[in-house]
Amino acid sequence: MSVIVPVYNAMPYLTGALESVLAQDLPELEIIVVNDGSTDGSGAELDRFAALDPRVQVLHQENSGWPGHPRNRGIERATGEYLFFMDADDTMAPQALRSMVELAERDSAKGPAEIVIPRFAGTGGRQVQSLYSRHPQGRISISRAMETLSPQKLFRRDFVERHGLTFPEEKVRLEDGIFVARAYTLANRILFCGADPLYFIALRDDGQNISSRTIDPDDYVTSCRRIAQTLRDGSPDAETGERLVLQFFQRKGLRFYAPKRWIRMSSETRARWVSLHGEFLRDFLPEARDATLSNPTDRRKFALIRTGDLAALDALIAAEPRLAHAARAIRVEESAHGLEFRVSLLPEDATTLFPAAPPSSARLSALRAVDRLSTTFAGNRGVRGAGRRLAEALASGLPSATLILNGRRRNRSATLSGRPLGVDAQSGAAEYSFFLSDQLLQSFGRDRVDMWTVAGIGHGLSGGRVRLTALSGAVTAGASDRCYVTRQGNASLRLPSA
């Protein structure tokens, strides 16, 4: 096993990082640390470790400006059967490397896996993708693996060498994603490892994480184009390639249209992002592919980026904070044809989301009658559709509500529109009914499914997605076989044999 660590001004984090590698319970281990021209004493600290433990090899070089060059020098020097790329400010659990190797070699009939992704946890306030808390250990699809493009993964060395995999050495954004995405497309098996976190990724309190530095739009989008081309070229068919590129842009492109980022940009920078992203979408994704996006806000942003409508993007992004809310399942029941969810949306600012006065008592009674009728005839799609349209008319002025379902193992998603039921007089929350048919649930196969809501108002404005939680006792006994509440209080689905 060869652990490769690029180092540039990593003190005082470097000491803990190396101590955690040396504490690994894997017997054969070499640690190749490349000092990329550090000026803060990191070089002397590396030499101290090398003098104390022969497993530590230190290479000193002039500063190259980016981690790709030192990682490549580590690949050239490595002799282990596996490579693991670690950052100098992170740490690992003592069993991390052994757990990944054992998992890679568990199914010997198929040969060792080429890539193993360790379960992450953040430290110092660092946030990590939901993938790390939701995906079970075992095989992971390339579409799910693409949610993590950082290099801190286990790779078979002969796989890396056979395909000539190297990191870009120029100073470019997403240089690690360029390497990792190509590796994903070439691998026969990618595994996800760890019942508990194995790798702890840090948020430096000095603000020197590379990811925290200013992003140049042209540089960033150029790297995105390289990754998109890799996904397209490495996919077995055009449909798969487009789906992977769509998911990639949804994560890496739309992040710049989040309100906190957008409002900090100058008008010139906003225009540059939209121009570059519009070209990206035109070159890599047919417009028809946008309809497959489950989040209505994301679909709207795609459409506005394609047309270059900066004013409409400003309005949409400005509306997102006003549509912030808490989403709670207040009752989940089994019906003859699926699961019926009653969900409340409590706005953070009621004055900007909900009408000044709730619907009249007569309209509320009519809404409840429509809901009972729709539930009774839940197996009839025509009745459900007519009931939804009637309920929307009766609840005119209330925001719309969308429920998004996402599988944990498979990248399967679905979107449902809620039937408005009215406004709770005490809390001020708007209430909606969502029907999850047996057919819909079965489409997720053997999986667990998490849920979010999106609120919308007129003129095509909608907000960001919000995790659906559940009130105590909301899940009735009849529904408990398929719906449960996580330790974090979120409502999730546990489908048969999942």
Describe the secondary structure blueprint for this structure:
Blueprint: E1 2-7, H1 13-22, E2 30-36, H2 42-52, E3 56-61, H3 68-77, E4 82-85, E5 91-92, H4 96-104, E6 115-118, E7 120-123, H5 131-134, E8 138-139, H6 142-145, E9 154-156, H7 157-162, H8 175-186, E10 190-193, E11 199-202, H9 217-234, H10 238-252, H11 259-262, H12 267-284, H13 296-307, H14 310-322, E12 325-335, E13 338-347, H15 350-353, H16 361-376, H17 381-394, E14 400-407, E15 413-417, E16 419-423, E17 430-437, H18 438-442, E18 448-457, E19 461-462, E20 466-470, E21 483-485, E22 491-494
Parallel strand pairs: 1-2, 1-4, 2-3, 6-10, 7-11, 12-20
Antiparallel strand pairs: 4-9, 5-11, 6-9, 8-10, 12-13, 13-17, 14-15, 14-18, 16-17, 18-19, 18-20, 18-22, 21-22
Provide a compact summary of the structure.
The chain is 37% helix and 23% strand. It has helices at 13-22, 42-52, 68-77, 96-104, 131-134, 142-145, 157-162, 175-186, 217-234, 238-252, 259-262, 267-284, 296-307, 310-322, 350-353, 361-376, 381-394, 438-442, and strands at 2-7, 30-36, 56-61, 82-85, 91-92, 115-118, 120-123, 138-139, 154-156, 190-193, 199-202, 325-335, 338-347, 400-407, 413-417, 419-423, 430-437, 448-457, 461-462, 466-470, 483-485, 491-494. Strands 12, 13, 14, 15, 16, 17, 18, 19, 20, 21 and 22 form an eleven-stranded mixed beta sheet that branches. Strands 3-2-1-4-9-6-10-8 form an eight-stranded mixed beta sheet, sandwiched between helices. Strands 5-11-7 form a three-stranded mixed beta sheet.
Give your account of this protein's structure.
The protein is an alpha+beta fold. The protein is 37% helix and 23% strand. Strands 12, 13, 14, 15, 16, 17, 18, 19, 20, 21 and 22 form an 11-stranded mixed sheet that branches. The chain has an 8-stranded mixed sheet with strand order 3-2-1-4-9-6-10-8, with helices on both faces. Helix 9 (217-234) packs parallel to helix 12. The two termini are 34 Å apart.
